[in-house]
Amino acid sequence: MIPELGHFALVLALLLAGAQAILPLVGAARGERRGALLMATGPSAAIGQTLFVALSFSCLMWSFAVSDFSVENVYRNSHSLKPMLYKLTGTWGSHEGSMLLWVLILALCSGAVAAFGRNLPATLKARVLAVLGMIATGFILFTLLTSNPFNRVWPLPEDGQDLNPLLQDPGLAFHPPFLYLGYVGTAVAFAFACAALIEGRVDAAWGRWVRPWTLAAWCALTLGIGLGSWWAYYELGWGGFWFWDPVENASLMPWLLATALLHSAIVVEKREALKVWTILLAILTFSLSLLGTFLVRSGVLNSVHAFANDPERGVFILMLLAAAVGGSLLLFAWRAPSLEPKGVFAPISREGALVLNNLLLATSCAVVFVGTLYPLFADLMFGAKITVGPPFFNATVFPVFVPLLVAMAVGPLLPWKRADLWAALARLKLAAGLVAAFAVIWLALFDRTLLPALGFALALWVVLAAATDLAERVKLGRAPLGESLARARGLPRGVVGGIVAHAAVGICLAGIAGKGISPERITLMRPGETTTVGPHTLRFDGKADITGPNWRGTEGRLTLVRDGQDVAVLRPERRFYPVQRMSTTEASIRTSGLADLYAVIGETSEDGATVVRLHFNPLAPWIWVGTVLMAVGGLVSLSDRRLRVGAPARRRREALAPAPAE
Amino acid sequence: MTRKKHRLWIVLLCGLGLGTAAALTLTAFEDSLVFFHSPSDLAEKGIAPGRNIRIGGLVEAGSVSRSTTPDGKMQIAFRVSDGAASLRVTYTGILPDLFREGQGVVAEGALTPDGSFRATQVLARHDETYMPPEVADALKRAGHWQPGEPPPPARDWNTLRPASAGGTSRLTN
Predict the structure, then answer these.
(1) How far is CA A391 from CA A398, A623, B31, B160, in A?
(2) Does A96 share its domain with A152?
(3) Residue A554 covered by a domain
(4) Domain limits at B48?
(5) Which partner for A114 in A46, A79, A465, B125 could form a disulfide, CB atoms 3.0-4.6 Å apart?
(6) pLDDT in tens, A274-317
(7) Is A387's CB within 8 Å of B54's CB?
(8) B108 and A606 in contact by Cβ < 8 A?
């Protein structure tokens, strides 16, 4: 009964989404006064839709929690022995469930616009909700027609087929919700862009409304990508964290454009320039999010993540993609020329630096796009089976990122409108000197390979520049310490968030560069033998059998030896999940915060020797520390009073308050 | 700065960005595209040893052997077949969890002068029922797998004869 309730709730949500797509739009076209009633249906429909989708999602989750194997989706992706956490997260472990999660997050976004967008002009709000309603209609329809999670099976199976064991993991359990929050969050920016095009008006206020949504989506996307790469690092047992896999690229492309959008929206807000470009970026960001969904869901690209190979679904998403991208670009071509640019600025200025940022981010996104989709194109056009691997992406993305990172340090120090580049560079003298000294010492004493050295130098440069920016703003050293502290407390949160996020990029980059100098060793070991990796010595103490709730396996014992003393034991595992007949590798990672010692075991040969792979990854944890700090910076910036929903309205009301007294 | 001059600047910058991107892409394509070949392609085309390529097919049953190299590494050798031709592959390192006889596999590496394939990377997929698209395609071309049919059972793979030689996709012994 519960699954039928969920199915029914989803159908009702579809009807409400349809109403949300049409009624407010008609109302807005009739004008503020005559269409008021129709426009007022928007928020009600959006909140109703949110409630019904949430009900539907809870029904599916309930079916997973109680292991109702009469539901096909539960039967295929769950098992009675599976731990409760993974039963619940299994709700979005399958294609059908993850589409329902997509729809839920979209509904929550439109509910949030309806609930928190009180200070938006009525027509803009109505149009934003209508565009979100259209997207929701498309995706609920997709879920109901091609991937209904509530289908029943008959006869009743005794037990489920279990979830893919690689997905039974805390990192991956929460990776999809964050990633989808990011993907779907860009839909709000997209809806604002379309609404602004229909209105034919983009102003500073529009920039101020769009920015928090973009920022929230960007934070979620950052965390989602970070969780995904962390999972790949410890779960796949390859010792790396990013493989330039098509599905990874599919999430990286919207992230690159969302980062650009985040920065160009500042220019719209402060200077009313770059309006047309910002609108286009918002459209492209969401289009790439949709493309990402298409690539993952259709299985057209050969990837470790490919799971749904259903051509019907691919065609449906392709049609959705064509409608959304084609429709919005047509709207853009038709309406964008009427948006007159206002702010004029010199090339050397804060705006100029942000244009450069946008240009470089868009370029890097373009090369990733080409590299990701070229195999598909080559297959369709010439029938050639091609793989574009990491060498291509390293050769194209790094050269674009180097100027981006160099400029990223200078940009925040430039004033708006017109700036003196030399004055800004002079303030970075100390940072530049330290970076140069570091580079010389590093190359002379430690390592001669160019790329890691460049990576470390750039990382240091970005962090020092962020520190310089902070020091300049609080007048550190030029004013008494007390005044500096008071100034630091008084800094707008938007500024603090920006500085934190920029420094975080440097920290993350240092971690990535660390991978470039990490030694690894693959060797055969018999119990009692020792080997070394980096500065560490490890002794292999044999293997033992272990069992878990729904798996069995073996663990290897590797003892870390320092000065003849046993310091720690690493226990890498190989697990076998009998229900899915799949084995997985569990890496054992010992981290000091500065470096990871990473161990994986392989098979044992006939003569009793086991394959052991060891990595010593200096600074590897910083990759994820940096990623989390980036998101923290975004959240700090999001909590800025200027961006807080309703704050501008209050100020306006205060400004208007004295009027009656006159 | 006039608006016109300003626009010119932006157009110039965009052109520069696009130009760089195109140049980077083309130069990188030149030497980092990895082509996929099935074992029968290799037999026909004659690919030069040393060039980085990908091969794929099914791991022949009973072909996997392990040995220890003089420098203490475990070397794995196996044969990859598409039903029409097969190729000896050697690899040093840890095989993916899903590597199994009779399973689809894709390996990246280069041919050696003696005609075998030295893999630097062996990829097997997450799901045991999943067939890499290239492998599925190679099997179809060799006449062993009609679309819509399930793939032939794994234990048959070392005994299949090419369809062109009058064989069927059923067991011959």
Answers:
(1) 11, 20, 9, 37
(2) yes
(3) yes
(4) 35-165
(5) A46
(6) 888 899 999 999 999 998 887 777 666 654 444 445 667 778 88
(7) yes
(8) no
